[in-house]
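hey so u asked for the seq, here:
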Amino acid sequence: MSDSHVWPLVHAERAALLIDLDRLDDAQWEKQSLCAGWTVHDVAAHLADTWKTTRLGFVAAMVRARFDFDRQNAAGVARERRATPQETLEELRQAAGRRSTPPAPLDTRLVEEVVHGEDIRRPLGLMHTYAPEAVVRALRLQTRTSASLGGARERVAGVRLMATDSAAVTIGDGPEVSGTALALLLAVSGRKSALDELEGPGVAVLTNEP
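ran it, structure tokens below
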């Protein structure tokens, strides 16, 4: 699938998330997400920041953060989190159709939508079916991207990932880790709750930080 097909996938996932967020009450917005230290509201604010991010804006933000990726993300949450969930939701609505990106592969937009979509949905017991293409492209990119940039290259070194719902997805060499592409994506992205959905001798490798 070419990059020209990525934006429709991104926009479809954004639209689906907006529907789910619009149904939440205030207590659900303040529930802990799968992102350590971030509530659902914080993750939504992070998404508002990433949806608005431009190439030049990202570079400027990294300079202000002294090239610390985590610090840059925290600053974005503080900047975009509004006083109320509904105000933050409106920021997301206004940004949902954008096609701006940081200076990174376009598939990072799919990583953002799928992984952070689950960061929000899973703690709330919400179910969503993602486009298989979106999940697989996000998984492949994460395994190629350094942990310093939010990826999983170091984490998956020495294991072989096999998606049970996609015969075309086998990544890496070493002890096998098998599960759905979504569970693999979440696990390699550091979401430990997804480890219970995986099987194989390589799972133990993923329980350790690189």
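The CA atoms of residues 134 and 183 lie 13 Å apart. The longest helix spans residues 6-22.
lmk if thats what u needed
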